[in-house]
Amino acid sequence: MRELRHVVVVGAGAAGCVAALRAAALGASVTLLEKEEHGATIERGGGWIFAAGTRWQAAAGIADSPEQFAADVQAKNGCTADPGVLLALTRASAGVAHWLADEVGVPLVLESEAGRPDDPQLTHRCLVDREGRGGPGFLALARGACAHHPAIDLRIGTGAEGLLVEDGVGGGRRAAGGGRVVGVRAAGGAEVRAAAVILAAGGFGASRERLARWIPEAAAMELVGGPGNTGEAIEWGAALGAGLAHMSSFQGHAQFVKGALLRLSPGIPGAGGIFVNNRGERFAREDVNYSAFSLEIARQPGGEAVEIFDERIRAAVEQQWMMKVARERGLTTTAADAAQLAAQHGLPPDALAATLVAYEEACRSGRDPLGRTLLREPLRPPYHAARIVPVLAHTQGGLVVDAGMRVLRADGSGPIPGLLAVGGTMAGLSGDGADGYYSGNGLLAALSGGWLAAASATACAPAAAAR
Fold first, then answer.
1. pLDDT tens digits, residue range 316-328?
2. Which CATH architecture has domain 251-392?
3. How far apart are the first and last CA of the chain?
């Protein structure tokens, strides 16, 4: 069976839904394939959207620009992101945010709660769902909009098995040479032909084999991202001669509660929360990005830590959706004093008490032996805490793209006709490893990337009619 569509989008997470909705708004007919019913990466995240030059910032009197946004990302990753791609993404960010609010119905507001450890000023650029539904709420709205759009054929539970090119089938079975991509082979053998294919299938965090090959230090981490992120879409592009970049890059997370697929607020360390290991000792400065800090926890005895905060911090973050869920599920403990806190988490009481006293002195003096510079008020009882494990959220390496999200050949000869990549399938913005991740990088590549790819893909639409 053959079908003809203007655009095929592989993956119905944040990137794929935005790409499909925007392409449909631009007049394309779209087939949107998704192999997993649940488990997109955004469903495990806060759904915080970072955008520069928005109307929400203007209303709050905040001066910001796409150029400053791009400079901040580059400062974090050591100027390793492709500058043209990055600037295209940041320049699209405000328009995407306005469109999500006005057309998709995501009720965005500017975040006014606790800052983040890598950049406490990120709240000036961060948009959240005012209903507090986080990533799961965003995906539900986006998929609902796709399901009800007359120009989008959304197929949940149907994945893609490979790319169709002019001279055969590429990707999963064999490399097909350098032809134009003209569609995909869907699960079950159906061919869906199109003028352009947008790969929005995520990265490879769910593939232990690919992690062992490209990011061995993350291969043992628990995955909390999408279970469908197995990386085959990246290899389909590579089989057609596409370039790959930053394959060692990933977002780790340092705040997932042990035994629960739920993280605590990233605002906790920024507001003054600390981590201790099983010896009851702080082990690294907490005012760094949570991605980099995940590796610090992984190096501790047992590969675990206990995150500790107090009532002041709890009040600052309690309205965030993950904190509401943590409270409902009883995932955090409350202790009247240090001795009770130690007993709750199996920590040496004397060592923990000494750690809390030392941290209080660091806050008072402004000098931390571990080098923390973002020092707040000392922690005061009652204490709140949870046992934390480092996890892998998503990988950030993938197919090299241009500013229009067109996939580029490794030999420098230009784009592969008809093939685009966004989100976790494209080469990301964080450089290599975990240290370069800047809060919001993943959704920036997904949302702005999907928006830009839709414009590039629909420019190919006349080719569909000609076939």
1. 989 888 899 999 9
2. Alpha-Beta Complex (3.90)
3. 16
